[in-house]
Specification:
77 residues; mainly alpha; globular
Length: 77
């Protein structure tokens, strides 16, 4: 299983205009300027590919920080 830091790296790769250094475990990703439904779909696809976990829209909405989302993924794995 990937670590939180590995998850953050993969998460940050989904953003084109947001500097990866801005994304930390405590980042409220919904507040990022670039975050959109398209980015959310990219994150869902990345999680499916890298973790073999299917996220739902509710999972994306219920997670506040990047670490929250990571914990959801780990609990589903």
């Amino acid at each position: 299983m990937k670590t939180l830091n590995e998850f953050i790296e993969l998460f940050a790769e989904q953003f084109d205009e947001t500097d990866a250094s801005e994304i930390t475990p405590n980042t409220v990703f919904h507040d990022l300027d670039e975050y959109s439904s398209l980015i959310a779909l990219s994150i869902i696809a990345m999680v499916d590919e890298e973790f073999d976990v299917t996220l739902k829209g509710d999972d994306m909405r219920s997670a506040v920080t990047v670490e929250d989302l990571y914990n959801i993924v780990i609990n589903k794995a």
